[in-house]
């Protein structure tokens, strides 16, 4: 017997619910958002939420997972690195994909709103993603830092360097409006992702090599 939940019409309904839920959660927050508002905006019956997601909490979790899906593609560059690429090239590609995941102009505006809210006040949904997404991402970035240095360095220092790298990316997203006002002569970040990725790579590598110069001889 075919799986009804996987047929085309059912998948369209599920997608409508995720899009509508993302908008409503971004506007209202989890607590204030209602299933009725979400289903009204999606143009589907309220029962569709129970059918596809069981409840509002699970729907929110799936929205958060969707928000981080493109970021997972960036993390894959360093979680499963291409052995033919040098650590420097892996780092550059990781930064480029990470920036694209957050600055992609085709993404709905609510993606960034929810992402930033979860960064400031992680919900149960984000906690559920810790072992699936965030911890593997963090460990892979720490391993890459050690490969860039060329040797194992103190773990605490590795974490601090990894945090500095992520902070540069998050700053660009979180302060986009103010940065556009401070520097009107610069194009919006979404229009110069490759340039930003190259700069962040060069800047970070210079800092890492300043702290840990390559061994001589």
Structural commentary:
The protein has 217 residues and is mostly helical. It folds into two domains: 4-64, Arc Repressor Mutant, subunit A (Orthogonal Bundle), CATH 1.10.10; 68-211, Tetracycline Repressor, domain 2. Helices cover 76% and strands 0% of the residues. It has eleven helices and no strands. It has helices spanning 8-32, 35-42, 47-53, 56-67, 69-79, 87-103, 109-120, 124-149, 155-174, 176-182, 193-211. Helix 1 (8-32) packs across helix 4 (56-67) and helix 8 (124-149) crosses helix 9. The protein starts with 7 loop residues before the first helix and ends in a 6-residue tail after the last helix. The mean pLDDT is 90.
| Largest sheet composition | none
Shape: elongated
Secondary-structure class: mainly alpha
Mean pLDDT: 90
CATH superfamily of the largest domain: Tetracycline Repressor, domain 2
Say what the CATH topology of the largest domain is. Answer: Tetracycline Repressor, domain 2
* Count, helices: 11
Work out the number of β strands.
Answer: 0
In whole angstroms, the N-to-C terminal distance is: 68 Å
Measured as a percent range, the helix fraction is over 70%
How many structurally independent domains? 2
Beta-strand percentage range: under 5%
Low-confidence stretches: none
CATH class of the largest domain: Mainly Alpha
Q: Could you state the order of secondary-structure elements as H and E?
A: HHHHHHHHHHH
CATH-derived architecture of the largest domain: Orthogonal Bundle
The radius of gyration is 20 Å
